[in-house]
Amino acid sequence: MIYLEDASKKQLLTIALHEDCELDLKYAACRELQIRQWQDYMLTDLVRLWGKGYTIFEISIELGVSETTVKTNLRKHGLYKKRGRKI
Questions:
Q1: What is the chain's Cα-based Rg?
Q2: What gap in Å lies between CA 29 and CA 18, rounded to an integer?
Q3: What is the DSSP letter of 6?
Q4: Which of 3, 21, 40, 66 sits between 20 and 30 A of 11, alpha carbons compared?
């Protein structure tokens, strides 16, 4: 049994584009990739988690996006070098 939520982005892309498998599985892989994209509503959680001292890796796991996406959004919103105190 395949658990797409545990698959890496590379694995999902391989299933969606290159694997010889059922169309339903390809669709599910594409849907999982879409779910993992950055959404504007994640900004609140990003600020909260960063302020609590979570690492970029921990935040990426919590939000279900890549570390690069987390770092990009921290920089975009001027938070990358700033930290709140740990609670």
A1: 16
A2: 12
A3: G
A4: 40
Q: What is the pTM of this model?
A: 0.69
Q: For residues 53 and 58, what is the distance between their CA atoms, to the nearest angstrom?
A: 10
Contact yes or no for 58/49 (Cβ under 8 A): yes
Residue whose entry in the numeric block shows the structure tokens 């993992």: 36
Which tens digit of pLDDT belongs to each residue from 6-53? 888 888 999 999 888 899 999 999 999 998 888 889 999 999 999 999
Report the b/e string of 14-27 with b at 16+ CB within 10 A: ebbeeeeeeeeebe
Q: Are 29 and 8 in contact (CB under 8 A)?
A: no
CA distance 28 to 85: 40
Q: How far is CA 74 from CA 13, 39, 61, in A?
A: 26, 14, 15
Pair of tokens at residue 16: 């969606």
